Amino acid sequence: MYYYTWDNQAPVTSIADLEKAINGEYAAVACYERLEGAAPSEEERTQIMEIRKDEIRRLQGCTRH
User: Fold this and answer.
1) Which pLDDT does position 34 carry in this prediction?
2) d(Cα 20, Cα 35) in Å, to the nearest integer?
3) How far apart are CA 28 and CA 18, in angstroms?
4) For residue range 9-58, what is the model confidence (pLDDT) as tens digits?
5) Burial class of 61 by CB neighbour count within 10 A (0 to 12, 13 to 18, 19+)
6) How far apart are CA 52 and CA 34, in angstroms?
7) Are 32 and 52 in contact (CB under 8 A)?
8) Is the CB of residue 9 less than 8 Å from the CB of residue 50?
9) Can you give the pLDDT at residue 2?
10) Residue 33 near residue 56 (C-beta atoms within 8 A)
11) What InterPro entries does UniProt report for this protein, alphabetically (predicted)?
């Protein structure tokens, strides 16, 4: 939940929370990329690739605007 001050600026805690979310999504994308490269079969690689694509979409959603 975000609270705004009278001058419509987000407080520091909201910015810190957003930064934490972006860093988490970025770390997830990097992790799934490593897992994708280490997957023992094409089927598993495809599943991991789909999960990674979802993480990328979330990361883009966090960083857009």
Assistant:
1) 96
2) 22
3) 15
4) 656 678 888 888 889 999 999 999 999 999 999 999 999 999 999 999 98
5) exposed
6) 10
7) yes
8) no
9) 52
10) no
11) Ferritin-like_SF
